[in-house]
Specification:
The complex is a heterodimer of chains A (309) and B (252).
Chain A: H1 2-19, H2 22-25, E1 28-31, E2 39-43, H3 65-73, H4 93-96, E3 101-107, E4 114-119, E5 128-131, E6 149-155, E7 158-164, E8 169-170, E9 177-178, E10 183-191, E11 194-202, E12 211-220, H5 256-260, H6 265-268, H7 278-283, H8 302-308
Parallel strand pairs in A: 5-6
Antiparallel strand pairs in A: 2-3, 2-12, 3-4, 4-5, 6-7, 7-10, 8-9, 10-11, 11-12
Chain B: H1 2-18, H2 23-30, H3 39-42, E1 49-53, H4 59-62, H5 78-85, H6 89-94, H7 104-107, E2 113-120, E3 123-128, E4 133-139, E5 154-162, E6 169-176, E7 181-184, E8 188-190, E9 195-204, E10 210-219, E11 228-230, E12 233-237
Parallel strand pairs in B: 4-5
Antiparallel strand pairs in B: 1-2, 1-12, 2-3, 3-4, 5-6, 6-9, 7-8, 9-10, 10-11, 10-12
The chains are: A alpha+beta (309), B alpha+beta (252).
């Protein structure tokens, strides 16, 4: 009876498959619900998210007034203070920084399930652990760290993760702040040997709209390692010196980036409306294309150009 | 008793020979469902509707025309440099080539709104208001008849459906048969030999909205030394009230 049953089911299945149009069959391919993310991923650097850290460049951000004011008060010399030299950058730097990803997984030896993924540290970025074991999120009053606390799960073929409990820090190296109330949602999409990591940073204090950054990586056959010990040293500031900062209304670099590329000051200051296509219509008649590029016009960032001026 | 067994064995062999292309159909049957009759029915995600570009990356290269001669972050080949430095938007306009910066390899990075609809059961249509362009993403291998090269080229689409109870998936699009165009408005070129692969994924936003992510891989043996990969993203909009078709422009 069982053989009869199997035969009938297979026969029915085969008839349907044979009758299905070939074109339809070619339209769909199955994709596993979970993909292997472990290994080394080299950064592509084909997208520019922070313009090589020119001061007062808030392009592509929707800042609150408070966020803008805090950003304008920032002086990069803060990083020369001995107690801040090895502070590193927060979780967002995973997609803002220039480095690649070194992802490992940790497996429960009994249940053979992935307990966590770990993205290895860089010289100025802490290790990020993505917990996959459904552990509860700590209390809102629990310790906040640079890396924060991250849990993840697979959803629609992508690794989905959420980071909370981050220390107050920055979302750009130019001093654009991110508060300790911020939440970062991540998606890791793997398509072949290309990994696209999307960050959606939400901050009720400093961001009017989420900051969405996507960064591409390619699988690297050679292992990558971006660790480098940070050794603080004297950089001209004595312990106990005041923290370098600007009066937000008198930031000497307020128009440097805008002038460098003839950009509208509104856009450089991180205003929400500048993120949408209709903003182009507003600046169409006032924008003047800068003079032709004559040096360092290729892959080198404008940091190089700025240094040469 | 032997005959059904032999039939079953034979049919199993036939099924095996049908191979991976029929995987989804086989799975649908195994789960008791009918095979999808069209790409529209098979869609694991819904891309239709209005979408607006959310320009949080490459702002300086997308929202304004960057300086002539600048090609940062594009792996331009030595052959491309001559084209980059010879860029003349007025000459393009005079020659009727204003749409060079709106071809398939660049159009998803142009600040624009998209309107995605099903033109027919197996063709997804993407209208773009900036430059008033239309892309047709055709499902099914071997469906594309020979056509002259065009700004948007010929695109073949394929769903990638995630196995398992959660479902979901993404859209893979490959495009070729392009007219030569610009990756950026300031004349960084791609040739007519360029090909493009796109992966379109959807993801929810914390405010309840939805984001369309288009991972775009452009390869060009003439003007690129390696793949140029970008991932523009779009927010879903409730309606087309902000839809604003504009013509191509070589100067803006």
């Amino acid at each position: 009876m069982l053989i009869h049953l199997v035969a009938r089911r297979l026969a029915g299945l085969a008839v349907v498959v044979l009758l299905a149009p070939a074109a339809v069959q070619a339209q769909i391919i199955a994709r596993p619900a979970q993909l292997d993310l472990t290994g080394s991923w080299a950064p592509l650097a084909t997208e520019d998210v922070q313009n090589d850290s020119v001061p007062v460049d808030y392009l592509g951000l929707a800042l609150t007034e408070e966020g803008r004011t805090r950003a304008l008060a920032y002086d990069e010399s803060q990083k020369s203070m001995i107690e801040r030299q090895c502070q590193g950058w927060g979780a967002a730097y995973a997609v803002l920084g220039p480095f690649g990803l070194r992802i490992t997984s940790q497996v429960d030896p009994v249940k053979h399930r992935i307990v966590s993924y770990t993205i290895g540290a860089w010289e100025d970025w802490m290790t990020m652990t993505i917990w996959m074991d459904d552990r509860p999120r700590p209390s809102a009053h629990a310790l906040h760290t640079q890396a924060g606390f991250t849990t993840g799960r697979w959803e629609g073929g992508a690794l989905t993760a959420r980071t909370t409990h981050m220390k107050a820090g920055f979302i750009r190296k130019t001093g654009v702040p991110l508060s300790d109330e911020a939440v970062i949602d991540w998606r890791f999409f793997r398509h072949g040997d290309v990994l696209t990591v999307m960050m959606v940073a939400t901050d009720p204090v400093y961001l009017e709209e989420p900051e969405i950054i996507t960064k591409g990586f390619r699988m690297s056959p050679a292992p990558l390692d971006f660790r480098d010990p940070c050794v603080p040293g004297f950089e001209g500031r004595e312990p106990g010196d005041p923290v370098p900062h600007f009066d937000p209304d008198r930031n000497p670099f307020v128009d440097e980036f805008a002038k460098l590329y003839n950009l509208p000051q509104d856009a450089v200051m991180g205003r929400r409306e500048t993120l949408y296509p209709e903003y182009r219509a507003r600046i169409k008649d006032s924008y003047v294309q800068p003079p032709p590029c004559t040096e360092s016009c290729g892959v080198a960032g404008n940091f190089v150009r700025r240094r040469q001026q | 008793m032997r005959r059904p067994c032999a039939v079953a064995t034979g049919l199993a062999v036939v099924l095996a020979l049908l191979g991976g292309a029929s995987t989804a159909t086989v799975r649908a049957q195994a789960q008791g469902g009918a095979p999808p009759a069209s790409a529209r029915e098979a869609a694991p995600i819904d891309l239709t509707g209005y979408w607006v570009a959310y320009v949080t990356e490459n702002w300086r290269y997308r929202m304004v025309t960057p300086p002539k001669g600048e090609y940062r972050r594009i792996p331009a080949s030595p052959a491309a440099l001559a084209v980059i430095n010879a860029w003349d938007p007025a000459a393009d306009a005079k020659a009727g080539l204003q749409c060079r910066g709106y071809g398939a390899a660049a159009i998803m990075s142009v600040p624009a709104r998209l309107h995605v609809t099903w033109q027919d059961a197996n063709t997804l249509r993407v209208d773009i208001d900036a430059g008033t362009q239309t892309r047709l993403l055709r499902f099914g291998a071997g469906q594309t008849p020979a056509r002259p090269r065009s700004w948007q080229g010929d695109s073949t689409a394929q769903w990638e459906r995630v196995a398992g109870p959660g479902g979901g998936g993404s859209l893979r699009v490959t495009t070729a048969n392009l007219r030569a165009g610009y990756l950026r408005k300031n004349g960084v070129p791609y040739s007519e030999r360029a090909t493009m692969t796109e992966h379109m994924d959807l993801t929810p936003l914390p405010d309840g909205g939805q984001l369309l992510l288009v991972t775009t891989i452009v390869e060009d043996p003439v003007y690129l030394t390696g793949p140029y990969i970008v991932s523009p993203h779009f927010k879903r909009e409730a309606d087309g009230s902000k839809w604003n078709p504009t013509p191509c422009s070589s100067t803006w």
